[in-house]
Amino acid sequence: MNRALRNAPLAAALLLALSACSPPPPATPADAATTATPAATADVPAVDAAEAARMAEQVREATRHAWQGYMQYARGHDDLKPISAQPRDWYPAPLLMSPVDALDTLLLLGLDKEANEARELIVGQLSFDQDIEVQNFEVTIRLLGGLLSAYQMTNDARLLKLADDLGTRLSPVFDSPTGLPYTHVNLRTGKTRGKISNPAETGTLLLEFGTLARLTGKQAYYDKAKRALVETYKRRSKIGLVGLNIDVETGEWTNKDASIAGGIDSYYEYLLKCWKLFGDEDCKRMWEDSIGPLNQYLADDVREGELWYGHADMDSGARTSTTYGALDAFMPGLLALGGDLDRAKRLQESNLKMWRLHGIEPESLDYAAMQVRSPGYALRPEIVESAYYLHHYTGDARYRGMGKEFFEDFVKYTRTEHGFSALKDVRSKEKDDSMESFLFAETFKYYYLLFAPAETLDFDGVVFNTEAHPLRRTW
Length: 475
Fold this sequence. Notes:
By secondary structure, the protein is an alpha+beta fold.
């Protein structure tokens, strides 16, 4: 273990023997693939322990570089525009998206100075008493999740107070006829709007609101978020799939496209993870009811043993498109967490193929034709997240090899003088002046954990929310 890891202040806080509190991994679904994982034909870089330590240090340097750019040119704002060196805010009043999303990562990486800067910005400047309308989903996973995780790591009561205040201000979204949340709410007035939502936005709230409920003793947080998850599940089709868009006032589907892509992805993630974090048997049952239909109707075997997940009609299960992309790349990690390592390994090989098509992954592609459909690259973490989960469960250095390739390409094509830039097109590598906060919360965190020694984080003692904020079961 190198000095940086030995000096990481979070080690003691995270090395908690919590596995006894967490439910065991679910059994592999009865219909799990029996096809043997095809031999990995694509070579990946060799990564031994020494090389992994070197890569972990490179991730720390990259994180520090991006943070310094933020502090120099966007301090007190939501994000840095890494090409023009200008700040960017989501709303008329900044909500410190990057500092909140970054804090637990900075702590985990042992970047003490930077973590102190982030915490002082948050406790000194962040106020949710703002007459602004915000998107409930993004604010929940980034800000509420980030504050809760940082509180658990630091025991700084000011962070929990901010989280509680935010939870109260977001709660009016649940006051719909169905209990499915509206998409937007005014933080000061509580006025809501946005009745057309999606399963990700209606079903990706229980980890955060449930943790807030456990830490504050306010059960209503848990009950409202769980009801939203259950009401989403109850509206699945007869064959067990959910669609893309739903009217939260009527509960009727307005778009019946089923997939694991954006707008749906984290709904499935939270069915499993809410059982893991809270031991909620309803969540376990809903997950087990859902993973089978996913594998039956969305999984797609193409060419010689390649596994992808496409789109289908939620009612008939008929294939509607062969589209897969950067957001879908979370699925190997979720499959591994659920105990289906065969499918997880096969799908990660497809992720690698997607990445190598143009040296960095596109937002989406047609996997049947292997042609890019949406060419942008937003610095997303999901492909690295899956490599991390697979390395954890298998111990196979192949996944660190993938991570090395991903990270070196990432740095080669996205690093700028002041940070890291999204790409407008992975084919031309033209940059886009954007560096969203999830770069800190997720992408850097998963890269670091992939290369760092296993004891850096008690994997079985935490559950990551969909923004990669680790939440611990301390109740």
